Amino acid sequence: MLRRGLKETPKRVSRFYYFEILGTAVFAITGVLAVTRRGLDVFGALVLGVVTALGGGTVRDVIIRVPVLWIEDFNYVWAAAIGALAAFWIGSLFRSTYRTLLYLDALGAALFAVIAADRRSSPTSADRWRSSWACSPPSAAG
Q1: Residue 4 lies in a domain
Q2: Range of the domain at 46
Q3: Residue 115 lies in a domain
Q4: 87 burial class (0-12, 13-18, 19+ CB within 10 angstroms)?
Q5: Does 11 fall in a domain?
Q6: Residue 64, SS3?
Q7: What is the pLDDT tens value at each position of the chain, 142 positions in all?
Q8: 52 touches 29 (CB < 8 A)
């Protein structure tokens, strides 16, 4: 509880924060575009997009034993949901730029591998092993 007159200081935003949010939305978009022609409804697209966008990072954070990012900051879930819904409703717009989205998807996977190494940089050998495994979810997805 804060005393009267004191304001809570905002959390420090990492240097990659906005790239992470954008990458999360792009992962959701590419995940939904991969299956939209299969007769998916809006709820299925939303679930698929969010799981696609957040699943690899969740596995990464569990492996390297750090708090799961989207639980600490719900903006990642919002970005994934907005990306998934946008891909569902205006998918034709994204299909015309699908090749660009695939490049952004690959760039996002590389960025998230760097972020994983940055999130868990520690000198012990066990932690180095975990950090190398942290790069495998983005590598497996791409």
Answers
A1: no
A2: 17-141
A3: yes
A4: buried
A5: no
A6: coil
A7: 444 554 544 455 667 788 888 888 888 988 888 777 777 888 988 999 999 899 988 988 888 788 888 898 899 999 999 999 998 888 777 777 777 777 877 877 887 777 777 766 654 545 555 555 555 554 444 4
A8: no
> In the numeric block, which tokens belong to residue 84?
């998934």
Q: How far is CA 98 from the centre of its chain?
A: 19
| Helices marked H in the chain | 17-33, 42-63, 69-72, 75-89, 91-95, 98-119, 125-134, 136-141
The closest alpha carbon to 70, from 17, 12, 133, 5, belongs to 17
Q: Domain total for the chain?
A: 1
Exposure on the CB side of residue 82, measured as CA atoms within 13 A? 11
- The Cα 68–Cα 64 span in angstroms is 10
Sequence-distant (6+) residues with CB within 8 A of 7 are none
94 within a domain of the structure (yes/no)? yes
Q: Count the Cβ atoms, other than its own, within 10 Å of residue 86.
A: 17
Amino acid 12 reads R
